[in-house]
Design brief:
- The chain has two domains: 539 residues, Methanol Dehydrogenase, Chain A (8 Propeller), CATH 2.140.10.10; 97 residues, Cytochrome c-like domain (Cytochrome Bc1 Complex, Chain D, domain 2).
- It has 701 residues and is mostly beta strands.
Length: 701
């Protein structure tokens, strides 16, 4: 009888194993989880079989601009219970069967709001109902995760306006959310993007009730009177300045109830004479009580930023062994190639950080902060200075480039911008170093950082003055262009060499006047809406771009900076390559337990240079890796339109595949019915590459 019972039990277990549904492993949050580590425990794909990956499915998300190549997809899709949630090239949310790519639902919002690039959505469930929180321009929608329909009880008809609750005298109207927020209990904690010019809205961090959309708490990143840090600004700084916002995303320790919020610089971001002081909480990592929004601790990575050196990516949360003890840590990357690492609870640095003297500004009125924090470990993951010895061996126009470099300021960190025609050489450039994709961290505490090493040159020029600070004067479209547009598109309207800021000199051959007016009013891609200008002023700029001369009454006020910059000019030679010696893009592995680098390899290549025998140089890049317990690291990001798999231990490339457009996004990896997939959004549209609308998933046959 006893033997029969054992036999029955064994047969029962066997039958259960035959009928049990194969494992499903999710990618449940932006960048893989609340720690933002881009990590998956999946092991089915490994160094021994990854070369066999094939396309499993493709999905055309729609909304792509194939004429002007102005659309992008930066989305890191979520996969939960076999359903993939993403955002299209046309900024619509959708859901797919994650095993087949079949569309389950897709939104068709047509609200009159600002244009933006979305990096993904936020998922919430209480086990009975499930919601997707999706930002569409300045609007935040709550959607039924099963149908994609707005949840009527949230806000007004399923949406709230992020502009509500943000205000200061003289500010513009521009606010969007391009990076998903984090969920804590019944709260959705959100940052937002604002403009980077003087009239920018404040960068307040808000927590919303998940069910109603009501604001529960607000943290002022530009402190109000009586709040900590208010004395780092001029009197009434919160009324006169904006920015210091969380556009790059945040991480959350739900067990402790702490949300980690990085911020960017205050506006105007490249000249700060009107905002003397350290300017807390700009350029800071802030630990907040997730329930109340109360500040627990902070660290400012740049004091009084006048270099546009925002913290570029969400923090990473991980555990390391430090001085023989396990420590829960938080880290942030920097555009300069630095890595700041702290005890997650106390804010104490795990490695020494030194305040070093820095150069003073030569621009009238500017008071650069005398010191800046420099982490002594880990070592920077990019080079830190640019001199003649750093010029590319095969650069064209060498004599011209050397002559320019000898006239300009370079060779060290934190050189304030001079007045044009002089320039400062940023190296790494204003876009990084690290960029918005951030870093991946595996279960052993090894961090993997994609970065770029391309110089950028920039100076300051006076803003055309009016007779008095609040005078109404007639200004031409040309003058308005120089004040509000030249800093990105160039004083000569030639744009930037890499295409990040398109040339406008022959705009009539590509666009009509109506479409240009629409971009000025609503924004597009990186460009914010020009809501600080009246319609007549925007019309005068359009007239100028199309060869007409128009004057319009224009009012100058305290929100206009006396200087504006000459543009984010990435320094390329006549042949179209960076003037710096390679690598131009890198992938670096850093042991966060010891702070030591393990390996660094180029990320990306120029096929025409490889054909000439030039070793891989790396390229400019956007996005991040996904790292797995199976020993792999997957990353696209490069302008060569490839996705690659690397051995995470050695940095050796194991597999690559051509994408329909560049994958300037971060891949997700997941399992459905026991099969592991890797999916990447292929939106292109940056760095003079074509736009696309595909999501491509790979798996073993």
């Amino acid at each position: 009888m006893k033997r029969f019972s054992y036999l029955t039990l064994l047969l029962s277990v066997g039958l259960l194993s035959l009928t049990e549904k194969p494992a499903t492993t999710d990618w449940p949050e932006y960048n893989g989880g609340p720690d933002r580590n881009h990590f998956s425990p999946l092991t089915q794909l490994n160094p021994g079989n990854v070369a066999g990956l094939k396309v499993a499915w493709e999905y055309a998300s729609g909304g792509v601009d194939t004429l002007k190549n102005n659309t992008q997809i930066q989305c890191n899709p979520l996969i939960i219970d076999g359903v993939l949630y993403g955002v299209s090239a046309g900024s619509q949310a959708f859901a797919l069967d994650a095993a087949t790519g079949k569309q389950l639902w897709k939104t068709n919002f047509t609200d009159d709001t600002f244009a933006m690039n979305s990096r993904g959505v936020t998922y919430w469930t209480d086990g009975r109902q499930a919601r997707i929180y999706f930002a569409y321009g300045s609007l935040l929608y709550a959607l039924d995760a099963r149908t994609g329909k707005p949840v009527a009880s949230f806000g007004k008809g399923g949406k709230i306006n992020l502009k509500e609750g943000l205000a200061r005298p003289g500010a513009d109207e521009y606010v969007v959310s391009n990076t998903p927020g984090v969920v804590y209990k019944n709260l959705l904690i959100m940052g937002h993007r604002v403009s980077e010019i003087a009239p920018a809205l404040p960068g307040d961090v808000r927590a919303y009730d998940l069910h109603t959309g009501r604001i529960v708490w607000t943290f002022h990143t530009i402190p109000h009177p009586g709040e900590y840090g208010a004395d780092t600004w001029p009197k009434d700084g919160y009324r006169n300045f904006g920015g210091a916002n969380n556009w790059m995303g945040m991480a959350i320790d739900r067990q402790r109830g702490i949300v980690y919020v990085p911020t960017g610089t205050a506006a105007f971001d490249l000249y700060g004479s009107t905002r003397p002081g350290q300017n807390l909480f700009g350029n800071s990592l802030i630990a907040l009580d997730a329930t109340t929004g109360k500040r627990l601790w902070h660290f400012q990575t740049i004091h009084h930023d006048i270099w546009d050196r925002d913290i570029p990516a969400p923090p990473n949360l991980f555990t390391v062994v430090h001085d023989g003890k396990k420590v829960d840590a938080v880290s942030v990357l920097s555009k300069q190639g630095f890595l700041f690492v702290f005890d997650r609870v106390t804010g104490k640095p795990l490695f020494p950080i030194e305040e070093r003297p820095m150069p003073a500004s030569t621009v009238p009125g500017e008071k650069a902060w005398p010191t800046q924090p420099i982490p002594l470990k880990p070592a920077p993951f990019t080079r830190q200075s640019f001199s003649e010895s750093d010029i590319n061996d095969f650069v064209t126009d060498r004599d011209t480039i050397v002559a320019q470099l000898r006239r300009w300021q370079s060779g060290k960190e934190f050189i304030p911008l001079p007045l044009s025609p002089n320039r400062t050489v940023f190296f790494p450039g204003t876009d990084g170093g690290a960029q918005w994709g951030g870093a991946a961290v595996d279960e052993a505490g090894i961090m993997y950082v994609p970065a770029k090493q391309i110089p950028v040159t920039m100076g300051l020029v006076p803003t055309p003055a009016s007779p008095t600070s609040a005078a109404v004067v007639d200004r031409t479209g040309s003058q308005l262009y120089q004040t509000h547009c030249a800093s990105c598109h160039g004083q000569d309207r030639e744009g930037s060499h890499d295409g990040s800021y398109p040339a406008l000199i022959r705009i009539s051959q590509k666009r009509n006047e109506t479409s240009v007016a629409q971009v000025l009013a609503k924004g597009q891609g990186m460009m914010p809406a020009f809501t600080h200008l009246k319609e007549a002023e925007r019309r005068a700029i359009v007239d100028f771009l199309f060869g007409k001369t128009t004057s319009v009454a224009s009012k100058e006020d305290l929100n206009t900076s006396p200087y504006h910059h000459t543009g984010f000019t990435r320094w390329y030679d006549r042949a179209g390559y960076p003037v710096s010696r390679p690598p131009w893009g890198t992938l670096t592995a850093i042991d966060m337990n010891t702070g030591e680098h393990r390996w660094q390899v180029p990320l990306g290549e120029y096929p025409e240079l490889v054909a000439k025998g030039v070793p891989p140089t790396g390229t400019d890049n956007y996005g991040a890796p996904a790292v797995t317990a199976g020993g792999l690291l997957f990353i696209a990001s490069s302008r060569d339109e490839l996705i690659r798999a690397f051995d995470r231990k050695t940095g050796r490339e194991l597999w690559r595949a051509k994408l329909p457009a560049a994958g300037y996004a971060s891949p997700s990896t997941y399992a459905v019915n026991g099969k592991q997939y890797v999916v990447i959004a292929c939106g292109g549209g940056k760095l003079k590459t074509k736009s696309g609308d595909r999501y491509v998933a790979f798996a073993l046959p």
